[in-house]
Amino acid sequence: MHPANTPCLSAARVDVCVLANNHVLDWGRAGLLETLRALQDAGLRTAGAGRNLTEAAAPAIVDRPGGGRVLVIGLGAESSGIPSAWAATTERAGVYLTDLSSADARKIGDRIRRIRKPGDIVVVSIHWGGNWGHAVPVQQLRFAHALVEDAGADVVHGHSSHHPKAIEVYRGRLILYGCGDLLNDYEGISGHESYRPDLSLMYFPELAGSGELLQLEMRAMRIVRFRLREADPDGARWLAETLSEHGEPFATSIHLQPSGVLRLRW
């Protein structure tokens, strides 16, 4: 995105941009540095990539109305197509890469514990896995559980798949294994129609002060000519049925309310 277009992010009231992904260095490290400057000049916080490893690994911190904060940690995995050469180091800009190991989860937890204060909510946002397919690899499942158990994550926000994937509530914490694309420019590209990549979801979790999930409501949207429109009832129903099918191993299901809202049950 051209730096002159950052006002559209401000208009959308975006607080944090997680930059750990497989395209953030498409224009080299100079492009990443320009991206960081443009976002920070616009008053947007970043996570997951930075001018060095310390910056890439640092959480984006957002104050919550009424007290407490949201800490957003951004991570990337090579399984999403991020080259290992893109990893940030002490002297080089890049992405905060994880190997999805339990040791890495503990390391992330140590970092969080040094920063976390009472009343904080921790979101770990991770770019992992391929673009298509509903299967959740065992390595992702184990790492997500370790982030909850060992790193104290309240929300695991997974992404990379171009369509929504299964949802789990583990020890009271929300895990999105693949949130899908809210908006993309893939319209008209054939080959994956069975996944309905034109459909997307807006997620509205409600958490207790302790970080436990109280409720998750979602709005089904449809991407049309690079714009978002509310999905029709058939599209919303397809999302509810598909996510319920793939949520069975996690004992979760999605229920379409008469209002058109999709609600998670677990």
What would you say this structure looks like, in words?
By secondary structure, the protein is an alpha/beta fold. The protein has one domain. It has six helices and 16 strands. Strands 4, 5, 7, 8, 9, 10 and 11 form a seven-stranded mixed sheet that branches. Strand 4 and strand 5 form a beta hairpin. The longest helix has 15 residues.
List its traits.
266 residues; alpha/beta; seven-stranded mixed beta sheet; five-stranded antiparallel beta sheet; 29% strand
Give a topology summary.
Layout: H1 7-11, E1 16-18, H2 28-41, E2 45-47, E3 49-50, H3 53-57, E4 60-63, E5 69-77, E6 94-95, E7 97-98, H4 102-115, E8 121-127, H5 138-149, E9 155-159, E10 167-170, E11 173-176, E12 199-207, E13 213-224, E14 227-230, H6 233-247, E15 253-256, E16 262-265
Parallel strand pairs: 1-2, 5-7, 5-8, 8-9, 9-11
Antiparallel strand pairs: 3-6, 4-5, 10-11, 12-13, 13-14, 13-16, 15-16
Helix pairs in contact: 4-5
Q: How many H/I helices?
A: 6
Number of strands: 16
Major sheet details = 7 strands, mixed
How large is the radius of gyration? Answer: 18 Å
What is the helical fraction, as a range of percent? 10-25%
Detail the poorly predicted runs: none
Total individual domains: 1
Strand content: 25-35%
Instruction: Give me the secondary-structure category.
Output: alpha/beta
Q: How far apart lie the N and C ends?
A: 39 Å
Order of helices and strands: HEHEEHEEEEHEHEEEEEEHEE
Instruction: Look at the structure and give the mean pLDDT.
Output: 96
